[in-house]
Structures are given as C-alpha cells and as structure tokens.
Amino acid sequence: MSSLQNAATPRVCAEPEVKVPVLSVRAIDKRFKTKSGDEIHALNKISVDLADGEFVSVLGPSGCGKTTLLKILAGIVPPSGGTLLYRGTAISGPQAGMGVVFQSSVLLPWWTVLDNVLLPIRVLKLDLTSYRQKARELLRLVGLEGFENSYPGELSGGMQQRAAIVRGLIHDPGILLMDEPFGALDAMTRERMNVELQRIWLSTRKTVFFITHSVSEAVFLSDRVLVMSARPGSLVENVRVSFPRPRNADLMSTAEFGDLTRHLRHVLGGSGAVHD
Ligand SMILES: Nc1ncnc2c1ncn2[C@@H]1O[C@H](COP(=O)(O)OP(=O)(O)OP(=O)(O)O)[C@@H](O)[C@H]1O
Ligand SMILES: [Mg+2]
User: Fold this and answer.
1) HSE-up of 193 (CA within 13 Å, CB side)?
2) Residue 179 C-alpha to ligand 1 middle, in angstroms?
3) Which of 43, 90, 138, 185 suits a disulfide with 166, CB 3.0-4.6 Å?
4) Is residue 53 lining ligand 1, measured as CB closer than 6 Å?
5) Is residue 48 part of a domain?
6) Is any ligand 1 atom within 6 A of the Cβ of residue 111?
7) Which residues are close to ligand 2, an ion, with C-beta < 5 A?
8) Residue 217 domain flag
9) 68 close to ligand 1 (CB < 6 Angstrom)
10) Is the Cβ atom of 66 under 6 angstroms away from ligand 1?
11) Whose CA is nearest to atom 5 of ligand 1?
12) Which pLDDT tens digit goes with each residue over 227-240?
C-alpha cells in the first residue's frame, strides 16, 4: 500500500476503554450555618471524577473548603447539594471502601500503635484476629516493625504519621483520603515521607485524594493536581502530571518540574494564596 493510499484510508483506532470512575463528585455545594446565624458558602458546585488507582492532589488557599470537601467525600459531613457516586452508585454517609488520614495523626495516646492501627476494624466490627497479622505486615511496609507495642508518645512525628497511614489502609479501602498528612513535619522528614508514600502507593495502587499546601509535594506525588479558588471553593485548574514513576527527589530540580510548579503557583497567586 502506498503512503498516499495509507493517508487516505481512515484510521480505525481502538476506542479507549471507558471506565466507571471510582468516585464521582457531581455539583457538590456546601453552606454552613454558624452559631451566630450567618451562612458560610464553603463549596460552590464542585464536580470531579477520580479514576481507579489515580493519585489526585488538591491545592487551594486556606479556608477555601478543602477539608470540607474531604469530609463530604468521607461521608462525615453532608453536602448541601449535589451527589456523590461510588463506583456509579449514589452514596451518603461513611463507606467501608474509604480510609482517612488527617493532618495531625490523631492517634489515641493511651493505645499502642497496633491497637491504634486496628481502630477502623473495631469501628467496622470486622474480625480483629484476622487483621492483626495484616497490621503487622503494613507496619513493616512503612518501617515500623518492632514498634507495634509502643505508645504514640514514644514515636517521632513522622513515625506517628506513618502509623496513621497504616490505620487508613488497614481495612483495605479502595480510596485513601488524606488531609495535609505531612503538614506538621519538618522539610527533610516530609521529603522522606513523600518518597515513602509513593512507594506505598506503587505497591497498593489505591485511589488517593491528597490535600496539601505544598505545590512541589502535589506535583511530586500526583497523576493530577486540582486547584481550588478562594471561598466559596470551586475548581479553577486541573493539571495532569505525567512524569514517569518511581520518581525521586532529583525530579524536583528539572526544568519541567519547575515549569509545572511555576504554573500552579501562578494559578494559586490569582486566588490570593501564598504557597511554598
Ligand atoms: N462546621 C463548620 N461550621 C461553620 N463553618 C465551617 C465549618 N467547617 C468549616 N467551616 C468554614 O468553611 C470554610 C472552609 O473550611 P475548610 O476547613 O474546609 O477550609 P480548608 O480549605 O481546609 O482550609 P485550610 O487550608 O486552612 O485547612 C471556612 O470558612 C470555615 O470557616
Ligand atoms: Mg483544611
């Protein structure tokens, strides 16, 4: 076949496989009533789809509604409008398919690391005995082997956050919701935790919804970065990050990484936020 004929022949491309998103957020709106009777419009018609196994970060100015959005996804706070679909089915209230990691690790100080990690198993009334072994394996995965019977006060901040991540993963949720999990850590520990989280993500392939104030952390970790406007929070940017994995800290000094973080800082600057 000549190249001319080739060019004239319509190309038959395989249709990309259309997957049902693992989580669909449709026109989510949130208004709070304060004690003084005022209304706070926190979220304005947020719509986003999370694909299975995707790592999505959210950046946005303080008070724009990031934590509120995460709590709505987790089923802890009801939306004022809109719908949430989990694998195509409308949901309300907490789901066993989701794990949550908050900014401060909120481990119970009078419980051992192992008992803290097993908290979701107690809450979900699953069989504790069969999850003990899994807890030990996950603690080993994050480098906390030997600390199972320690108390949170005996661990460093980074170790506590790793235990909190294990607690978010223990019941094998399809989706991990993380609210600034490394916000309280020093820069070096945070960088190590980013590499650690990437390693855990590569070996578990959870769908991750990750809130951060750090542009470089968002770009380093994510398949996609979303940016929210100031309150009422709406989505103003949605950028795909396609650097190959595994990524290491050297990526952060490349021109491409710099271009992307500069663009995101510019978008954030337009929303009045100052980010590192
Ligand atoms: N329970 C509540 N009652 C009233 N207002 C609330 C409540 N929770 C949050 N808000 C308000 O909603 C807005 C969004 O708060 P949210 O905590 O979601 O912001 P955020 O983006 O997570 O901020 P930060 O980056 O500082 O953590 C804020 O104005 C906050 O005061
Ligand atoms: Mg918050």
Assistant:
1) 24
2) 13
3) 138
4) no
5) yes
6) no
7) 66-67
8) yes
9) yes
10) yes
11) 32
12) 999 999 999 999 99
Q: How many domains are contained in the chain?
A: 1
Is 65 a pocket residue for ligand 1 (Cβ < 6 Å)? yes
Ligand 1 centre and the CA of 64: distance in Å?
Answer: 7
Q: What is the mean pLDDT of residues 44-70?
A: 96
Per-residue confidence at 103, pLDDT binned at 50, 70, 90?
Answer: confident
203 pLDDT tier (thresholds 50, 70, 90): confident
83, 27 in Cβ contact below 8 A?
yes
Tell the residue number behind the tokens 């480098």, with chain if given.
143
Are 271 and 229 contacting, i.e. CB atoms less than 8 angstroms apart? yes
Q: Report which of residues 3 and 154 the model is more confident about.
A: 154
Q: How far apart are CA 264 and CA 51, in angstroms?
A: 22
What b-and-e string marks burial along 220-251, b requiring 16 or more CB atoms within 10 Å of the CB? bbbbbbbbbbbbbbbbbbebebeeeeebeeeb
- The whole-angstrom separation of Cα 241 and Cα 220 is 9
- Give the pair of three-digit tokens for residue 86: 């989990």
Among 149, 110, 117, residue whose Cα is nearest residue 131: 117
d(CA 67, CA 94): 15
Rounded Cα–Cα distance for residues 214 and 115 (Å): 31
Enter the tokens of residue 82: 């809109």
Domain holding 186: CATH number? 3.40.50.300
Q: Which domain holds residue 69?
A: 25-97+173-270
